[in-house]
User: Fold these one by one.
Assistant:
Number 1:
Amino acid sequence: MSTNTKLVVDERLVKEIAVLARLDLSQEETKMFVSQFNDILEYVSILNEVDTENVAPAYLFSANKSVTREDQIEESVSTREFLANAPESKDDYVVIPRVHMEG
């Protein structure tokens, strides 16, 4: 999409997004989201007006160093101990309820 193209959200697009998100929106909610999405896009479009000609790309947003620890191999519970806490297991696997997809 070029920077000159203005995206406008309409009811059709909100309904498509709702289907993808598995949301059942009322007509009132659909209209509300049309308005809210367009307000957000209008607000974000202000960024296109910012002069970034002499601004270097930012590769790091924080000067902080990583605070995560190095991966280390440690002792863990055995499969048998783990499965002893599961509500149901079979052949070294935890059994969970089947997920039914609609549509």
Number 2:
Amino acid sequence: MPPEYSTGIRKFSPRKMQRLLRHAYRLAPAAKRRRGTSSHSGGREWTISEMRLLGKIPDEEAARLLRRTCCSVKTKRQKLGIPSIRPWLRPWTREELHLIGKLPDVEVAQLTGHSEYAAACKRRELGLPKLDTKCRPWTKREDALLGRFSDQVVAQRTNRTMSGVRARRSLLGMGDLFRRNPNWTPAEERILGTAPDDEIARRFGRTKTAIQRRRVGLGIPVKSRIRHHWTRQEETLLGTMPDEEIAARIGATLSAVKSRRNEKGVRAVNPCFKWTAAEEALLGTRPDAELARKFRRTVLGVALKRRALGIPQFSRPAARNRVARFLPRLRSL
């Protein structure tokens, strides 16, 4: 039951006092639970029979039998210095510690029954180096190779990794004597921008990033397979010849030429759109559909050209007169 407060006349419960006094009323602080106690175990003390059970069965099983938490069982066992029954949690013996640092971690784990991670952690705890063919200490003979040969050659001769050779060279204060990126020549710089970066990289034996950085540093535009950077001379060719010929001449795609021509407002030039004198002479002498099949054009195109020249539609008498009129001209062709 909640405690009641008396004012001499009436008694008020804490809820009534809080409603009357509002923020001026404060409840009494609750008693803090002692650290290390558990709500499940009730903070009861350990008996001798319970302590004797520790280390003989797994902590989970002991917690279930003793009606305690697994954390309290593990903490009590560690305080008493009792090793766990699990093999990967048992303490290291002197014979096992004698193997650490003399054999690789994998072999130590196989001989002792510990995990490879446990063997590595114990080796680091003892301050012992890792015994590995690629992580062994450097000898004076191996250090003498640094600076005389490239990192790749030193890695092959010493059976080490490239990163290990670079780290050792940096630790000794040696610069990159064998530079992987030689200086640029004027002839190489003139080729930048004449082809895509990946093609120039394969030609020079450099990386694409190196080509791109050098080109951007010199202010040279990129030569892309998709996007073409137009010059004034190339723009003057638009409309003077078919788009296919311009694309083949300047090394751009057909879509790029069409887009640039439409952007400049230049009409396309296509040989199939040009009418010859012989074709114009035959307009009106036959039906438009028949001429369209013969000229490999559309019926609408033939009709529009005929109307533009003021030639009437095909009819038998008009066709005879037109043929007689243009017969000398056709013979001259």
